[in-house]
């Protein structure tokens, strides 16, 4: 997937963790637009019809369509001048599925970290949540906020790691207006896609993200103003 993924598993074994990683490798092979033999690449070249797609790809494309419609086209899996690229949905969706594999295998306490987007379960210490730091958009060695998460997911879309890589699907141009969008939800597919979709809307994404069901937000705009929803699980040290 082009990013580091780690599992902190407190009550499982290496075999269970390997099952989760095996799924992530499978997802990468199936959904990567950069691999010519992936299902996504074959669909993009017209080698597959909608009726021939696997249920997983149908689900991913349905999520892409929903967010595209919800944002008026700002979020899209088909940016002008590019081929089909559902990665903005696939990452959170696939990592959430990996966390589900851990749960189904009996694990109750873990943290899956995919390049800073995380899914957590249980408490690493009695009475204490997992602490998830949200990086400061300007200062790499500092955090803007720390969230306390027991059973939930946190995802951030920002420019500090990859520069202007998020495009407005309506124009194909880099998005302006926001520096960082963090979303807390029960599900990483929702958190990650909502964060990216909100970013594509620029400042209009602040209100849009806050209005989404099962989402709490922490957003920094280009003027360094902070917007935080009241249900955000801020950890008080």
Automatic annotation (TrEMBL):
Stretches of the chain forming a coiled coil according to its record: none
Pfam families: ApbE
Chemical reaction(s) catalysed: L-threonyl-[protein] + FAD = FMN-L-threonyl-[protein] + AMP + H(+)
Record keywords: FAD, Flavoprotein, Magnesium, Metal-binding, Transferase
Domain of life: Bacteria
SUPFAM superfamilies: ApbE-like
EC numbers on record: 2.7.1.180
Cofactor entry: Mg(2+)
GO molecular function: metal ion binding; transferase activity
PANTHER family referenced in this protein's UniProt entry, alphabetically: FAD:PROTEIN FMN TRANSFERASE, THIAMINE BIOSYNTHESIS LIPOPROTEIN APBE
Name of the molecule in the record: FAD:protein FMN transferase
Organism: Lentzea alba
